[in-house]
Amino acid sequence: MSQELTYEQAKSRLEEVIIKLEDKELPLDDMVTLWEEGERLAAVCQERLTSARARLEAVRPTQTESE
Questions:
Q1: Tens digit of each residue's pLDDT (9 = 90 or more) over 4-63
Q2: Residue 41 and residue 17 in contact, taking contact as beta carbons nearer than 8 Å
Q3: Distance (Å, rounded) from C-alpha 22 to C-alpha 54?
């Protein structure tokens, strides 16, 4: 499922997870589950950013082409 998320969706959900993790009353098991979800969401965000960067680099003229 997380691979189908857009960058914006994953980032938004990651922000929600972080807010929940800041709750000092959260049971340890829930905290671990949220942490794991956060790790997956962070990976999705990183993947989307890396992909976008690669796409931009592919269409950007190289230094020698622009001279």
A1: 899 999 999 999 999 999 999 999 999 999 999 999 999 999 999 999 999 999 998 876
A2: yes
A3: 34
In terms of C-beta density within 10 A (0-12 exposed, 13-18 middle, 19 or more buried), how is residue 54 classed? exposed
* Domain at 2-60, CATH from 1.10.1060, 3.30.70, 3.40.50, 1.10.287: 1.10.287
- For residue 3, give both structure tokens: 């691979």
Is 0.85 topped by the overall pTM?
no
What is the greatest pairwise CA distance in the chain? Answer: 60
